[in-house]
Design a protein that fits this description.
- The structure is a single chain.
- The radius of gyration is 15 Å and the shape is globular.
- Helix 1 (17-27) crosses helix 2.
- The termini are far apart.
- The protein has 4 helices and 7 strands, in the order βααβββαβαββ.
- The chain has a single domain (7-152), classed as Aminopeptidase, CATH 3.40.630.30.
- The protein has a 7-stranded mixed beta sheet with strand order 1-2-3-4-5-7-6, sandwiched between helices.
- It has 160 residues and is of the alpha+beta class.
- The structure holds coenzyme A.
Length: 160
Amino acid sequence: MSAGDTITFGPLYLADAEECAALERLLFPGDDPWSPAAFRAAVRAGHHYLAARDGARPVGYAGLALVGGPPEPEAEVHTIGVHPDVQRRGVGRRLLGGLLEQADEWGATVFLEVRTDNEPAQALYRETGFEVVGVRRGYYRPSGADAFTMRRARRVGSAR
Ligand SMILES: CC(C)(COP(=O)(O)OP(=O)(O)OC[C@H]1O[C@@H](n2cnc3c(N)ncnc32)[C@H](O)[C@@H]1OP(=O)(O)O)[C@@H](O)C(=O)NCCC(=O)NCCS
């Protein structure tokens, strides 16, 4: 099954905050999962947040913020998560693709952090043009896990 079969994609709304926080607790139990208030703050701030839905229910989410520039815009992937029941069906790829379309409209270089032991996410990031540019020791709390910083170069000619 591909993501297009039953899952739809669109903006994330304030009303999704509780469901997203529940997903975070499922996906990031040892790493200070985001609260509903954190999701609401990100949406209110106008960051680029997307949802994947099964019916009305969010089964995936992803968020991107513009954090610097011009003249050299930089964006950061805040978060991306997909419910275990629908993982490996292309949902994460579609969500990340939506973030990167926005980054390309901004003409932004994109950064993110990912646990050094998170092979699935790293594989997804590599296939979309990210490369490891650094290591941050003990980045995640409270687990103390290390992070790679990954970077995707701005797409030449994509700035408006
Ligand atoms: C990372 C995550 C968002 C991927 O979502 P997904 O919907 O399962 O990913 P997709 O089905 O779109 O997979 C896209 C590609 O990513 C890679 N990938 C995804 N899951 C993988 C796995 N378990 N093992 C190896 N590679 C994997 C593959 O390259 C895959 O392409 P393929 O299926 O054609 O081989 C999901 O695993 C998740 O929510 N993980 C927990 C939260 C998390 O770690 N978020 C990232 C924090 S930095």
